[in-house]
User: Fold this.
Amino acid sequence: MHKAKFDYHRPESVDAALALLQQGGKALAGGHSLIPVMKMRLAQPDALIDLGRIPDLSGITDEGDSLRIGATTTHTEVNQSDLVQASVPVLCQTAGMIGDPQVRNRGTIGGSIAHADPAADYPTVLVALGATVHIQGPNGSRDVGAADFFVDLFQTALGETELITAVTVPKLAGGAKASYQKHRHPASAYAVVGVCAVRSDSGQTVVIGGASATPTKVTGPMGTDEEVMSSVAAAITDPMGDTYASGEYRVHLAGVLARRAIAATA
Amino acid sequence: MTAIRPFGHDQRRLEDPRMITGQAKYTDDFVLPGMVHLAVVRSPYAHANIVSVDTSAALEMPGVLGVWTGQDMVDAGFGGIPCAWVVPDAGTVTPNHPPIAIDKVRYVGDAVAIVVADDDYVAKDAAMVVEVDYDELPACTDGEKAHADGAPQLHDDAPNNQCFHWTVSGGDVEAAFNEADIVVGERIINQRLVPVAMEPRSALAQWSSGMGELTLWTTSQNPHIVRFLLSLDTGIPEHKIRVIAPDVGGGFGSKIPHYPEDSMTIFASQQLDRPVKWTETRSENFQATIHGRDHIQDVEMAAKSDGTITGLRAKVWANLGAYLSTASTGVPTILHGLMLSGAYTIPNIHEDVYGMFTNTTPVDAYRGAGRPEATFMVERLVDLVAKKLDMDPVAIREKNLIPPFTEGHEVATGLIYDTGNYQAALDKAKDMAGYDELRAQQAAARAEGRYIGIGVCTYSEICGLGPSEVAGAVGFGGGLWESAIVRFHPSGKVRLMVGINPHGQGEQTTFAQIVADQLGVPTEDVDVQYGDTAQTAMGWGTYGSRSTPVASGAMMGAIDKIKDKGRKIAAHLLEASTADIEFEDGKFYVRGSPESSMTIQDIALAANTAWNMPDGVEPGLEASAFFNPSNFVYPFGAHIAVVEVDPDTGEIDFQRYIAVDDCGPQINPMIVEGQIHGGIAQGVAQALWEGVQYSEDGQLLTSSLMDYAIPKAEYFPKFELGHTVTPTDVNPLGVKGIGETGTIGSTPAIYGAVLDALAPLGVEQVHMPLTPERVWRAIQEAKA
Amino acid sequence: MKIDNEFEVARPPDVVWAFFQDVPGVASCLPGAELTEDRGDGTYAGIVSVKLGPMNATFEGQASLTPDESTHSAHLEGKGADRKGGSRGSVKVDYRLVATDSGGTTVIVEADVSLAGPAAQFGRTGIINEMSNRLVSDFVACLEAKLEAETPEQAAEIEAGEVNGFKLLLASLVAWLKKILRRS
Assistant:
């Protein structure tokens, strides 16, 4: 289908982008989620504010114990970053599993989490890693933990006049390991279910994506395969199903992938 | 030195440079002075009465030139979209198919109105504000349920939504089943698929009111058929219509039909006296371009305890969608029912096919068209017999394959297969696969709790459509012959004009190879022209793997005429007797005196200048010929697939694929391979990934590439291809078609492999596509 | 899509029935709904706006309500169109009130919601279903709360929950809204 009419802005600074946002409109990063719904005319923003030419928003920097990843850093850039590979390899792995090469070359980490699609890959992993989302708005900047950022289906802590500027991800230190396991939808390559397991000094974290509205942290015992299956099932209280995979199957798949992710971090 | 002959050798596709550099010209690339754009208002409902259509808001939008409804087209003299294949002796009814719905819509995507504006976006925006008030009606999307009393009725003249009831019968099926040692059977759902050609459809109509002439650029596999049909429903006489199909980006059957949008653009061009273009969006492609398959098949096979197959019986509900598309009724009957003997001796066959109207997108030919639906059924039944008798899938096939034949073999459905050596293809596939070793590996894996499966398919298929007498006898509203014109220019360059219309198959290259091989000119000196009704008198197009087996016959006829004429001219110029002139590798020479020779380019110059022609010989070096094949051709082959199933998740790891296909002599093996690769991909996709889903009220749930899973290259292992060569006697070059064999052979092979993997778990059937959840559920149910 | 719901309130059927005749009150339980016209003949016009992430739709619709006081039941039909996006929604709702042994009322609601056009074809059907179910349960929870309220004033203060999270209005939402609008 064809999009409805809209104005297009391409600011060159965060301040300029924020000023434009105050007048309405929608921020555009890679466009891989927004443009399709605009074509379906399920979204008809009056204006798009393209963040693609704001240098401050892109790039990966080493901040000691953590990495700061600019909001418009593409999946390919994350996937191919030596810095990320050395300190949070699971993020490289995840970025490489998103969509297809075209999507990875255009799609951005900020766009992915701002859209908060329940089937997206990054939200699951960022929650599991305990990442922080940096937000800037008309009244200054604020930080939100990834677990609090994803509020509900397609809904985040980001206000309509705010921008994500970066994500900070703690390095996996002291022998900590992480693994992301995913069942790809054969058409969209979205995560039918994606599971991220992190094993560190503080214990085992398992987060499930794709089965619920937001990333779901698994609590409960995970000592044996059976315990993993039942703890995962208990965590996903209201599984989503669709024409490809029912809620029941997603819960099962989440359990199996959780086992594999945990095994991969052993 | 012996030059490599063009025929039989790899040659990079001549069409590729322009296509991969963006220089190809597709219909949507054409921009004419004064051209305006058409958008279609489509029904969001599967079944509804149209209460009112308010066009006022659309008409008020700046840039909008007109808004019209179905009645406007009727008032202008446009008729319904004709169906070109009406199967006889089946009570076939052909309800009216207005290009724009009148009073009632019958599927999601049915046209309700058209808007024309000077800009494409304005046209689409205006289409959004055409206010249509609908009165929703109950819908039915299931070919079997549509037949029930009380089901929603689509057409007044099709009681119980039945379009036809067609039967095929051979031998004594009743007796075969009565006397059988074993009978196997099940219900097969051969699910609905979307063709998804890379290039969406497009039509650009230019009506010339002064001349009373129409030119239509359109995405067609068969421009002459479109021209013929347009002359029936637009009221424009056929000789005043020119249809041009420029570069066409894939079709898989979906660009055979004459579609309503062709007529809409013509109507609008006449109304406005300006060129009018419409190009479909991908969403429209999913809704309003034909779908394929969609059978519900209740099938049974009878056999003796030694594995000898004695009978096959089937009842099929073929879902035709809401209206008849161009070839709708022929696909599930002639191209399906007559193929039920497959590659086997099955003496007794009976099938009933019910063609059904439902509130869904019209169904027509999709790659393989009827034969995949037949082959899957037959191969599945053969596997069930093998399983019941604890026989190896290869052994059961070897027991029942038709023995090698060279002079025709008649099967119970009445078809006479041309030539075949099925065992040879199976032997080669077994060799390439290392079949016995694979079985040993499978056994070892099972012992470790791993589930490897091996699937086997031996197929034969009918293609190269076909003898025109048969076309007429089975209700096809046209001929199935081909024509060709070979023209030498004075400089010795050659133009070949044909009536078939390649849209990805590579005949620009392979046909040049044939001409070059036969006439001894460089391949690059041969320009192959197609896709324009102004260039050739007639031609019936590209589908049913017919272009090479049929058109090559016409080309050979024209080539022979060129050679004959060349001999006369050469004899005259070389001062020899025509009977003494030999032609070889592009040279005419006097027998016994090879130094006394002229090249065919010399002859072309002499003929075109005509300074010194023999008495009674016309100037020019050009010939045309027509070829009406005496039979269809029947390529065949053996495919073997290897998979491993993860019982925890139901996921399928696709490990190996071996395909041995026999299309007779190969003109360009690289292109043959490409055809087989694409065919396998589409056939495997039916087994594993693709499938249309409608909601109960007829909403198309798999309406985009976000949800409808066409395969990506990474989903496949490297295909291992082999071939055998069994020429046909149906055409001079002995060539058979190869466009559809991959699709026909691969669905059953991969399906068989998955079911073989699942056998130790007690799983007996899983419906396609074999999604991980379906496989997982089947495992859970078998455990329970 | 059929969505059935059943809940019990500690008030007698007569009181509950009277509540259900207050169409604006019932409509206020639907997030994003606005009753624009009571045509006085059992038909209503209204607007339902839904928003989910970047997606939004505004359905303008009409509904008709056919109450049957003798059986404490009603049939409601509504349909609406999103004029900007081309999506359509319709709903049929039957509800009936059944007295419980303890003097309360069981409210049985059977709804059949159908969406057409882009909203139905967006795919990602799980998301649409999820939204629909949540909207319905939110609506029902609001009704329950109103019916449980001690005073009419309290009841009037209860509105559709802060449904920002539910802003994506899907087809079922629209249908429900319309149903409500048509009532009274």
Summary: The beta strands of chain C are 2-9, 33-38, 43-52, 55-68, 73-82, 88-99, 105-116. Confidence is low (pLDDT under 50) at residues 161-184 of chain C. The CA atoms of residues 127 and 170 of chain C lie 9 Å apart.
